[in-house]
Amino acid sequence: MNFQRIAVAGAGAWGTALANCAARAGRDVTLWARDAAMVAQLTSTQENPRLPGIRLDDRVAATGAIADVKAADAVLLAVPAQDLRTAAIALAPHIRAGVPVIACAKGIERGTHRFMTEIIAETNSGALPSILSGPSFAADVARGLPTAVTLACADESIAAALARALGSQTFRPYHTTDVRGVEIGGAAKNVLAIAAGIVAGRRLGASATAALVTRGFAELARFGRALGARGETLTGLSGLGDLILTCSSPQSRNFSLGIALGEGRAGEGKLAEGAFTARALAELAGEKGVEMPIAAAVAAVIEETLTVDQAIEGLLTRPFRAE
Which band of pLDDT confidence, cut at 50, 70 and 90, is reported for residue 40? Predict the structure, then answer.
């Protein structure tokens, strides 16, 4: 379980950053991209245009041949959450039985309400579903700036071995077997970050931001407990840690989308993961009987069934209650 050969599926900013990260840890890395032009760019210039000024590590080999992932000891699936099923289906015939497939996206699939590891299990019965999540921006990871994340797998020994294989002095994965808890934190915080961005865009003040993030975390924790997540996971890097980062920086697409919505620029930035997850999260919470008014309000704003002002008014006029 030394996981020397790592394949990264998806050559966006996040996939490229993770490829550099694995190479920095001493692994031999294959970076698969379905776009031939991207493969040519990475091969000729050693740079991804989505990460300007950051050189691709020499131990990373870019490829457009999906069969090249067959040699991998572990696969990092670094595609957007709503595209993960399509990618997982395409990769399944080329992944050896028992190989960990690590979802690196944060979200819940629309329609099915499936989490990322559930999709991996459904599309590849021989794979070992895992998840990597936590407070991390692609540019920081690609540059080798200090970052800590959570890596979860149902098999603790494999989770620990994967953490050692991918970890370095500046990239520190903490391992756990609480797969669902890690997935919940990553999915819910994206939706809550849109709400935090709306508060910033509407210039409602620092006090309102603090209240929103705190009450948002209460929603995340309620949802997590209902689905069996552990408390230490929800208050850890992949839960509270990621929420703090995503709700405080315009580097976050979700926070930036919220700012745009708050400022009345509703058409901008809807490629943020939280925009696609919001409705699925609200629906799943309803199925489980979990009250998530902030998440539901974000979903309504994204789908334009409520205006920003109506959503804010609805939250501010809720009945007073015990904390």
Answer: very high
Bridge-partner residues for 103, per DSSP? 77, 131
Token digits of residue 32: 């698969």
Rounded-to-integer distance, Cα 250 and Cα 87, Å: 29
* Catalytic-role residue among 70, 189, 270, 288: 189
Question: Which whole-number Å values give the CA distances from 275 to 170, 208, 272, 297, in the listed order?
Answer: 31, 22, 6, 12
Residue 52: CB partners within 8 Å, gap ≥ 6?
Answer: none
The per-residue pLDDT for range 267-282, each reduced to its tens digit, is: 565 578 999 999 999 9
Token pair belonging to 82: 């709503």
Provide the residue count of the chain. Answer: 323
Place of tokens 């990239």: 171
Tokens standing for 114?
Answer: 């499936």
Say how many Å lie between the first and final Cα of the chain, rounded. 46
Q: What is the pTM of this model?
A: 0.95
Active-site residue flag, 106: no
What angle (nearest 5°) sits at the alpha carbon of residue 124, between those of residues 122 and 129?
A: 80
- Give the strands of the sheet with 60-63, arranged side by side: 60-63, 28-32, 5-9, 74-77, 100-103, 128-133, 147-153, 171-176
